[in-house]
Amino acid sequence: MNKRIIVCVLIKCKDKYLFIKQDKKDGAYQECLHIVGGGLEENETLEEAVKREAMEEVHISLEKVIPFDFDSDITMYKGKMTELIFLRYIAEIEEITGIC
């Protein structure tokens, strides 16, 4: 069975949390709200991956990320049954116009 490591980050600003909607073709969990995240790339640390995904998806530079949860699921991903391993982090940001 295929395995894929997914890093994600719950971004907090004051008393608000950032969620996004992703509808990637062949992606898992379409039509759902998500926290920012994506797949771990080769030769990348978990923290580097979290920060890269935040920059790519919502253009936010994160200084510090803290691990807080993990989970896994077996689901159809890109046409194949895949075990997705989720490593979740949390980060707090200062006020950004349009976000909080």
Note down, in words, how this protein is organized:
Strands 1, 2, 5, 6 and 7 form a five-stranded mixed sheet that branches. The chain has a two-stranded antiparallel ribbon with strand order 3-4. The model has no long low-confidence stretch (mean pLDDT 90). It is mainly beta. It contains one helix and seven strands, in the order E-E-E-E-E-H-E-E.
Could you list some keywords that capture this structure?
two-stranded antiparallel sheet, 7 strands, 1 helix, mainly beta, 5-stranded mixed β-sheet, globular, 100 residues
In terms of topology, how is this protein built?
Layout: E1 2-13, E2 16-18, E3 20-21, E4 33-34, E5 36-39, H1 46-58, E6 66-77, E7 80-92
Parallel strand pairs: 1-7
Antiparallel strand pairs: 1-2, 1-5, 3-4, 6-7
Task: Summarize this entry quickly.
By secondary structure, the protein is mainly beta. The chain has one helix at 46-58, and strands at 2-13, 16-18, 20-21, 33-34, 36-39, 66-77, 80-92. The protein contains 1 helix and 7 strands, in the order E-E-E-E-E-H-E-E.
Alpha-beta content class: mainly beta
Gyration radius, in Å: 14 Å
What sequence of helices (H) and strands (E) makes up the elements?
EEEEEHEE
Number of helical elements: 1
